[in-house]
Amino acid sequence: MKKTEIAREGNARHLKYFCGDDNLRSAGAIMMATSGILFLWNWFIWFFVLFSILMFILFPVGLVLFILGSIGRTADEDIDKIIATLSAAADVDREKDAALLRRLRQRPLPQTVSGYDYSDDLMFRKTKNNVVRSEIYYKATLLPLEDALCVLSAKVNIPCETVEKGMLELPYEDIEDMRVVSERRTIRFLKRSFSVLDSRLEIFANGKKLLSLPVKESAALDEFVEELKVRKTKEMKKEAAEPCAAASFCGETQQNLN
User: Domain map of the chain by residue range?
Assistant: First the structure.
């Protein structure tokens, strides 16, 4: 599906947030900033009437252009609220998830991960805080249970204001590898390009990659992954030792009987 086709789906204001042209807003902001500089200069060089004329022309024109470029577009703050509301689907509900909480281990501690999907076929925009935002946002809660890793996930589609919930239980013996991978990439959308650090939590089980979740790099997440690996290794050694111990016990019993 082409990006122009994707852009037809969803709330029009949210789509303009990603696809809208920033030229009017940028031109308006520059003109207003210039008028502000001229205003300051005018206090010191009051006899330059030209500065005053330019100032009173640039500011209103710049303001009009800025407003025209912003009309019909969702603000960054509103997008943040949408994400916070919908991604809460990945949070633990103490009543609904009581059975899961009873199976929790003491270590490692549960982790919450989140991040934007930087796949090439999505829409992107840089926020006022210089965060590169995509139209898809993921959030997941990782619960280390007694016998399995449980992943509660929420996939938020920002333009459509929808969320796709998921729950996956992976028995520890089925998990072959679990790691955080990061890659510095350049992504493009329309006439814009962005440099992003694409970090993902990857989980391999039963010979294939079962999960690839966008995350933010953190020491806590690295520690979580390492603790699970160590615990899994100990349990595998324990399971391997149990048949040997049982066989040894049976052999000793047989000898005593003889």
Answer: 21-70, 88-244
